[in-house]
Amino acid sequence: MRCGDFKESYLEDEKIFQTWFVKFWLGLLLVCLLLFPLLADAYMLYIANIIGFAIIGAVGLNLLTGFTGQISLGHAAFVGVGGYATAILMTRLDLPFWVALPIAGLVTAGVGMVIGIPSLRVKGLYLVIATLAAQFILEYVFMHWESMTRGIRGINVPPPRIGGFVFDTERSFYFITLILVFLGVAFARNLVRTKWGRAFVAIRDRDLAAEIMGINLFRYKLAAFAVSSFYAGIAGGLWVAFMKIVTPEHFPFSLSIQYLAMVIVGGLGTVLGSIFGAVFMTLVPELLNVLTGATKYLFPGMDQLFIPLKEVIFGVLIVSFLIFEPHGLAEIWNRTKNFFTLWPFSY
Amino acid sequence: MDIIPQIIVSGLAAGGVYGLIALGFVLIYKATSILNLATGEFMTLGAFVCLTAMTQLAAPFYIAFLVTLAFAALLGIVIERIILRPLIGEPIISVIMVTIGLGSILKGLTHMIWSPDYRSFPKIFPPQPLDLGFAIVPSGLLWGFVSAVVCTALFTVIFRFTRTGLAMRATASNQQAALSMGISVKRVFALSWIFAAMAASIGGVIIGNISGISIHLGNIGLKVLSVIILGGLDSIIGAIIGGFIIGILENFAGVFLDAFFGGGVKEVVPFVVLVVILMIRPYGIFGKALIERV
Hints:
The complex is a heterodimer.
Chain A lengths: L9 H5 L5 H20 L2 H26 L7 H18 L4 H20 L8 H20 L1 H4 L5 E2 L4 E2 L2 E2 L3 H22 L3 H11 L1 H6 L4 H27 L1 E2 L6 H14 L4 H24 L11 H19 L3 H14 L6
Chain B lengths: L2 H30 L6 H17 L5 H24 L7 H22 L16 E2 L4 E2 L1 H23 L1 H11 L1 H6 L4 H27 L7 H13 L4 H21 L1 H4 L3 H16 L14
Antiparallel strand pairs in B: 1-2
């Protein structure tokens, strides 16, 4: 009797859905996700959408930081570029959302490659500082290039539509988000097991060794920046179409930190980890929100503490994950799974 | 009156303070190779502690100042011991992110304890401005400059001429050799964090005196990154000279470029300078050219 999951070829080991058990549960999850809008109220759908955007952004950042090892502190600015590109394309050129979104993704990929150029000369600490500078410069551009971005007044964006159907509610938008999250995750999951993905990991592990093995650092580092920014651009475009407005203060430095926190808390270098991280880091503040709302009558003045409390909890989460669980939620998930594979006879 | 000397003089004065804060980065980087992105929050916290000691406890300035220094030392040692020591030898992203997380915690705590309102400092320097003939230096900037220079000189003296400073320099140049010569590297790490927290706090107090404080004071900490990159991450003299250069450049840009770019250029120029330096000379003016190119 086979009492385990044995792989007999490399191909089998590389499969994404390795067993029927996994396929069954993932199928069930998909069905639940499809049925979710029938049961949920507007607030829950709003959160679900926000989580979806966060997943797309975090998967993108994880491809850059987790897989390729290039730390970026400017991810929020890329999300902003995508958002502004979508908004400008839709309002100035009257392009439909479905055309504007991919173009915005490509524009962001281009900007990301420009920001990525220093990564060829500098690395580690210096790259962190370079991307941080990019964040502030782009924020400045959003704010002050008034003829294009309309400064702090922002741009109002029409909702996406197909024929006569307008996606202007949380419920209808949920399906766009779901499909794009699905596509994004599937692409990332497949990318990391191709030649490109392996090149990314090789660069992360030791760039000199990677170059000696024939990996063109110039090409792959820029590719990592481009893919990562493309994801950020899509996340930004969705966000803007969902919120129906874009203003500069939506993409602050703290959002970049939030993305990095998602990737770290979720688990660097795993696609699953970025999903966990995005869900977790979006839900924690919302839970706090609910808690402060509920205890408002018990402790008046609590709601003023909400924003700083959020910041403290963010910091504590980042620090404690780095110290106690550097591989993130994905590792906890793996450990739990392994514990149950042969349970209750694990010895 | 001619405007250019005036710009240079106030740029120099602001640059002195930048240099002092940059010292907070450099001291830690030199000894431990950690870039402490929470330096800005150290500043804010120091300034608030000093302010509270002066207003709530009605302490005279020199006592409040000593309290601030003691607090900064405590903060430095606690953070080094609890947060940074478990991460020795971890990859660079962990160490950077931990300082960012730390910054987030400190900022949130500052916000919780002292509400986000803007406050002004009680005046501690004589109010009359200094007239140099070709330019006028406002009193806040003048005294800020003087105290920044004094503090920087003090730190340089400690670093150069004392036994502790020697131990710190030895650790910076080669940790293992320092260990084998009987230097306690752990103690040196703790000391660098203490000194850096003190430098940042003093910087915060000085800036608070010039322009008042709010919880967003820490953003200056990020601006100062351009100073240390310009001067070289591991160079004390570079931090000071970089501070002056950035201070002057920023003032020039504020006066001459604002009209073209619709205001606020002063805030973004340091970052543009930063990118340019990273492109052409990443190790800065005085830094060690030990960058590995790939």
